[in-house]
Amino acid sequence: MDMLVVGAGEMGRWVARTADRPVAVTDVDPAVADATAAALEDVRAVPADTTETFDIVCLAVPISVVEEAVERYAGTAERAMCDVSGVMEGPVAAMRAALPERERVSLHPLFAAGNAPGNVAVVADAPGPATDALRADLRAAGNHCFETTVGEHDRAMETVQAGAHTAVLAYALAAADVREEFATPVSEALDDLVTTVTDGTPRVYREIQETFEGADRVADAARRVADAEGAAFDDLYREAGE
User: Fold this and answer.
1) Rounded to an integer, what distance in angstroms lies between the CA atom of residue 174 and that of residue 56?
2) CA 207, CA 210: separation in Å to the nearest integer?
């Protein structure tokens, strides 16, 4: 059972090396696909306009183009299509419309590829043997796959991605340059989070912020904390710990 991975960036490379099956990769930049194929065993590069068909097509493309990619590559998926874009509502609806008779699964690895294995959220819109086999590959590599719904996933991303990233970036932008000796356990932990977040690609984080709400709630909460005095602060402190 072979697979085409569309998008040979970080997550596309992760899918290609994690899937225990023949894999082809493609990318809008042929050099990126060639480099990925050269770096991974038993992986080959194909043109972005390939007319080949594959048992499974996995879309590892940015959020902003995933629905377009569904339409473009639906004809190359003989049995199944999945995506690892990180949003569920749009891709699931697009795959349902474009591939009504084939297997469809949306996957969200909740980690950077360099931190694998980890948790993988799964919306199994139309599961079957092909997508079950792919999920088995992910589990065999040490990942924890758990099922969710489109609504639950996208609401959760407002907190664990958009909100969390906003809080970390705001701390980084507000922090003064102080001597290392002044660091506290809390500030050290926050500095480590800043390093983790800012070690990525701006476009990836921008698309998350543009896709999911959550940033405004963090900003509103920060203002509540900044304005609170006396018992009002105590109440917020206790509320935060609940």
Assistant:
1) 46
2) 5
